[in-house]
Design goal:
Layout lengths: L14 H12 L26 H5 L1 H7 L2 H30 L17 H12 L14 H29 L2 H5 L2 E3 L3 E6 L2 E10 L5 E15 L5 E7 L6 E4 L3 E6 L11 H6 L3 E9 L6 E8 L4 E3 L1 E3 L3 E3 L4 E3 L7 E3 L7 H6 L14 E3 L2 E3 L3 H8 L5
Parallel strand pairs: 2-10
Antiparallel strand pairs: 1-3, 2-3, 3-7, 4-5, 4-6, 4-8, 8-9, 11-14, 12-13, 15-16
Helix pairs in contact: 3-6, 4-5, 4-6
């Protein structure tokens, strides 16, 4: 492209794409994430105070947090072990009463002459099967007391185990999996201001009517002694309260006071921060409090991109195309940080000024400021 002065201007439109690929291949593999994309923290506790006693003191919460395979094992063992325990008690009663060796006297428990019969009677009593073949004698008070104790214990055990299973099935984590963030964050211009933004959407039909978005910048600094110090900085979010009937775009303006105000596309390559975002809301079906979270590393932030439009107006409904939820397209954005942009405001006169020349893949390029700003105005809000 030529200017009015006859100078040749070359615009490197592939800068952002190459820049993103280099960051993803060169940096992501060497950086340990503070939070995984699915919201799990890469943190392991070692020598925590109390060891297993803390888990036993809050046993119900422990049941909710264990895996389903372990939960099934606990569910099965709780009943099998209780049948064995009370079966042993019935066998001891029969042994003391002489029912094992003497088949002529009236037994405490009918048709219980060994441990197998005692175990079957215990299972039938606790499960309230009642086949009618085994039963207690009215003349043996110990057997009657033991049946009463087992009946009360079975009610208590059913309350804990079935309650834990139901609570685990209705866990807030499952609902949180149907609310998601976009796989990447983007940087583009909105009303002439550089903004960092990402998408949030509800994939279920019963929409979330209210929720709060929060974003925090996490950095770790290695000390000379080898220790690591974590720092946390909150990001100011435009429209923090979200009505999630349709997918929403979360926006953080890169203005003075923002931790990202001085970062440009090149600075992202060498930085080690992690953007942790969360959405806390109340489910309309269960009334439970839920939270969905994820994180973005510098490799997940695309400079000079915008999300494709996914909301369309139909004849009777608003139509949302979730196939475009993570799709971005390139837009013209200056390769400068927000601080550099504010410091180098365009003068009132002097059209055709060139930015300082830069290099990319061994080629020198220059960008006309006027052309760049014209492209900036085309960025969708």
């Amino acid at each position: 492209m030529s200017t009015a002065r006859g100078e040749q201007v070359v615009i490197d439109t592939s800068y952002t794409t190459i820049h993103t690929l280099e960051r993803q291949s060169g940096k992501e593999g060497r950086r340990l994430r503070y939070m995984q994309k699915d919201g799990r923290f890469s943190v392991v506790f070692q020598k925590a105070p109390g060891d297993w006693s803390l888990y036993l003191m809050d046993f119900f919460t422990t049941l909710l947090e264990i895996r389903w395979s372990v939960m099934l094992l606990v569910f099965s063992l709780s009943y099998i072990l209780s049948w064995l325990l009370f079966g042993l008690c019935y066998w001891l009663i029969a042994f003391v009463h002489g029912d094992i060796d003497d088949t002529d006297n009236e037994p405490c428990v009918y048709n219980v002459r060994g441990f197998t019969g005692a175990f079957l009677f215990s299972m039938e009593t606790q499960a309230t099967i009642g086949y009618g073949f085994r039963g207690t004698s009215v003349n043996c008070i110990m057997a009657i007391i033991m049946v009463t104790v087992q009946s009360v214990f079975s009610c208590f055990l059913d309350t804990i185990v079935i309650g834990a299973v139901v609570a685990k099935m209705a866990s807030a984590r499952k609902r949180a999996q149907t609310v998601g963030f976009s796989s990447c964050a983007i940087v583009n211009l909105r009303d002439g201001v550089l903004c960092l933004s990402w998408r949030l959407g509800d994939f279920r039909g019963n929409h979330i009517l209210d929720g709060v978005v929060r974003a925090q910048l996490v950095r770790y600094v290695k000390q000379q002694q080898g220790s690591i110090v974590m720092s946390y900085q909150d990001l100011d979010i435009q429209n923090r309260d979200i009505v999630l009937a349709t997918p929403a775009t979360i926006i953080h303006k890169l203005k003075p006071g923002s931790p990202l105000y001085s970062l440009g596309p090149d600075d992202l390559m060498g930085d080690n921060f992690e953007l942790v975002v969360s959405f806390t809301y109340t489910g309309d079906s269960t009334g439970m409090l839920h939270q969905t979270r994820t994180s973005y590393t510098p490799a997940d932030i695309l400079w000079g991109q915008r999300f494709k439009d996914m909301l369309k107006l139909g004849s009777r409904h608003y139509k949302v195309d979730y196939s475009l939820f993570n799709v971005t397209t390139w837009v013209s954005v200056p390769q400068l940080s927000a601080e550099e942009q504010d410091r180098e405001k365009l003068p009132a006169e002097g059209h055709g000024q060139l930015l300082p020349p830069g290099k990319r893949n061994g080629h020198t390029y220059q960008v006309n400021r006027d052309i760049t700003v014209e492209g900036m105005q085309q960025t969708l809000l």
